[in-house]
């Protein structure tokens, strides 16, 4: 019998992309609410009662409300919002992050989908902290660029209407909402310095972690640690720096659920840059949610998902 899945926030940027990935699947039946009642607690409760799993693609407050509405029904939840990423009782939905994470997701009632920036940052930082190559108290510097779809319907409307046309830095005040999950799941004790940016294009993300004094031995060790951490993974791969030089193209993995990691640097100065590239709407949001759903339902983890480009394979 098909698994019943309710996407709360189905008309939003993340929700639509999840629906596209699920609607062709014979093993899944989508539970839907009348669009006119999509914000109505009663209509959402009925859908939650019918569904085996609900995927929340909502602002944080609405996601918290849905979790409360779902409680009496025992519906499993995958929350794409920021609301539960460091919350007790929630499993962080990044299967490749650590040994046993996939099994924890499979057994979970509540799974929190990681943020797009934090997926890259954690993927790069955590194995290097584990290998003793990043001091957890050092607060590494993180920067990056995202397409404007990362800002949801509001930011898409700004760009499509012409109200905003250029690129910009933001969160320079060091209060970005992904910092708590980067600290917790990156195994850091100090908060990193993080300055993200939005580029004047729709989709795709590149993130850089900067380590000023790692040296060439450190570079080789960093690459080895990343390769060991993601050995055998289909969606998270370590690629040669030459793949991303001289230009790191944030749109390279659009339409896929892939995350590519690479280690760049200058042996003469010892300065190293770790790079992560993904589709902010793929492994950064909707692709990751579908991967988590597959794990929770015991399906093929890659069902409905594209891996990386030929170069990434
Ligand atoms: N875009 C991205 O790259 C990523 C987004 N996320 C997270 O996913 C979540 C959704 O983001 P995104 O898809 O970008 O946002 P959007 O703004 O594109 O979509 C949000 C959707 O939620 C609906 N909604 C708002 N309030 C309610 C409510 N009370 N009840 C039911 N539906 C409601 C909105 O409806 P309406 O349009 O009618 O207002 C809209 O369709 C957010 O928490 C975001 O932080 C996570 C990773 C990446
Ligand atoms: C470009 C842009 O604005 N991006 C969003 C993050 C998108 C994302 O990862 O989503 P969550 O909101 O669920 O964490 C931001 O930086 O706030």
UniProtKB/TrEMBL annotation:
Domain Semialdehyde dehydrogenase NAD-binding: 4-105
Active-site positions on this chain: 116
Location in or out of the cell: Cytoplasm
Keyword list, A-Z: Amino-acid biosynthesis, Arginine biosynthesis, Cytoplasm, NADP, Oxidoreductase
Single GO biological process annotation from the record: L-arginine biosynthetic process
Enzyme Commission number, as recorded: 1.2.1.38
Pfam family, one: Semialdhyde_dh
Pathway per the UniProt entry: Amino-acid biosynthesis; L-arginine biosynthesis; N(2)-acetyl-L-ornithine from L-glutamate: step 3/4
Catalytic activity as recorded in UniProt: N-acetyl-L-glutamate 5-semialdehyde + phosphate + NADP(+) = N-acetyl-L-glutamyl 5-phosphate + NADPH + H(+)
Gene Ontology molecular function terms on file: N-acetyl-gamma-glutamyl-phosphate reductase activity; NAD binding
Gene Ontology CC: cytoplasm
Family matches, as NCBIfam families: argC_other (TIGR01851)
Function recorded in the entry: Catalyzes the NADPH-dependent reduction of N-acetyl-5-glutamyl phosphate to yield N-acetyl-L-glutamate 5-semialdehyde.
Family: Belongs to the NAGSA dehydrogenase family. Type 2 subfamily.
Protein name per UniProt: N-acetyl-gamma-glutamyl-phosphate reductase
Source species of the chain: Alloyangia pacifica
Origin organism lineage: Bacteria, Pseudomonadati, Pseudomonadota, Alphaproteobacteria, Rhodobacterales
């Amino acid at each position: 019998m098909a698994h019943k899945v309710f996407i709360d926030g189905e008309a939003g940027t993340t929700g639509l992309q999840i629906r596209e990935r699920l609607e062709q699947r014979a093993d899944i039946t989508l539970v839907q609410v009348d669009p006119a009642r999509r914000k109505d607690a009663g209509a959402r409760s009925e859908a939650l009662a019918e569904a085996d799993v609900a995927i929340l693609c909502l602002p944080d407050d609405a996601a918290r409300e849905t979790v409360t509405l779902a409680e009496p029904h025992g519906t499993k939840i995958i929350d794409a919002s920021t609301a539960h990423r460091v919350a007790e009782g929630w499993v962080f939905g990044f299967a490749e992050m650590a040994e046993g994470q996939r099994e924890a997701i499979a057994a979970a009632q509540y799974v929190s989908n990681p943020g797009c920036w934090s997926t890259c940052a954690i993927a790069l930082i955590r194995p290097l902290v584990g290998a003793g190559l990043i001091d957890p108290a050092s607060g590494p510097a993180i920067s990056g660029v995202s397409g404007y779809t990362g800002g949801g319907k509001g930011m898409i409307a700004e760009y499509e209407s012409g109200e905003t046309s250029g690129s910009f830095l933001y969160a320079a005040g060091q209060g970005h909402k992904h910092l708590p999950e980067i600290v917790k799941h990156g195994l850091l004790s100090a908060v990193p310095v993080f300055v993200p940016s939005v580029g004047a294009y729709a989709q795709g993300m590149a993130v850089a972690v900067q380590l000023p004094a790692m040296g060439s031995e450190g570079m080789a060790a960093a690459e080895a640690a990343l390769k060991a951490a993601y050995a055998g993974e289909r969606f998270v791969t370590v690629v040669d720096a030459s793949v991303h030089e001289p230009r790191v193209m944030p749109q390279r993995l659009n339409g896929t659920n892939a995350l590519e990691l690479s280690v760049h640097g200058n042996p003469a100065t010892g300065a190293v840059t770790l790079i992560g590239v993904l589709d902010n709407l793929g492994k950064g949001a909707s692709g990751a949610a579908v991967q988590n759903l597959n794990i929770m339902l015991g399906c093929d983890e890659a069902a409905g998902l594209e891996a990386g480009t030929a170069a990434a394979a």
